[in-house]
Design brief:
Strand content: under 5%
Helix content: over 70%
Number of helices: 11
Low-confidence stretches: none
Radius of gyration: 20 Å
Order of helices and strands: HHHHHHHHHHH
Shape: globular
Mean pLDDT: 94
Length: about 210
């Protein structure tokens, strides 16, 4: 199936088996031409493992196909912007990169892509701004990673659970916030204490239902 081919392609990509991964990605999108996730994964791999201009052009085509299937796909928007920039079409790619970065305010990768693009354009002011934004987002991602590690090391410690729940609430991740509050309170996510704690976090961060 297309899903099996995609899973195999991702595994081969992680193992550095480039020819095999490319073949499996192609099989996945051929088996299910309407699978936006498969086209996006293929586009991303073509871009990150590019061996030449042809791969950048193919990444552009796959990203455009993804957006035709799923216009709100920010990953495809980012990939398309980067593919265009990689082909020297920087002015064409920059608006897409800015769109992805502004609509994904906690994603370090999109902010870094914008910073790098402004650097290529020789625009030091915006480049510095987006480099600082990238650093801030990266620090936040690292802090979240540290909390996940702390939770794994001490599952009974409620403090990292609640800190992570609050951070996820800030990002509008209702399910994540609720899940960690439930774990902190040792109850099911649909239990009243977890619901109340999550509601408090969401209200405090401007995401109240």
């Amino acid at each position: 199936s297309a899903t099996d081919r995609l899973s195999l392609a991702l595994l081969q990509a992680r193992q550095g088996q480039r020819p095999q991964a490319l073949a499996s990605f192609m099989q996945a999108v051929t088996l299910d031409p309407d699978a936006a996730a498969a086209h996006q994964a293929y586009a991303r791999y073509l871009l990150t493992a590019a061996a030449g201009p042809d791969d950048d052009r193919r990444a552009e085509a796959e990203a455009r196909h993804t957006l035709a299937l799923d216009p709100a796909n920010l990953g495809a928007t980012l990939t398309l912007g980067q593919a265009l920039a990689a082909q020297g079409r920087v002015a064409e790619g920059l608006p897409l990169l800015l769109q992805a970065a502004r609509r994904s305010p906690y994603d370090p990768g999109s902010a870094l892509a914008v910073s790098q693009t402004y650097y290529r354009l020789g625009q030091s002011g915006p480049q510095g701004k987006w480099q600082a934004e990238y650093s801030a987002r990266q620090r936040r991602a690292s802090a979240e990673g540290d909390l996940v590690t702390a939770i794994l090391k001490a599952p009974s410690d409620v403090r990292p659970q609640r800190k992570l729940a609050r951070m996820l609430a800030e990002e509008g991740d209702i399910a994540g916030c609720l899940r960690h509050q439930a774990q902190a309170l040792h109850c099911a996510p649909d239990a009243a204490p977890a619901q109340a704690a999550a509601a408090e976090d969401l209200a405090a961060t401007g995401h109240a239902a």
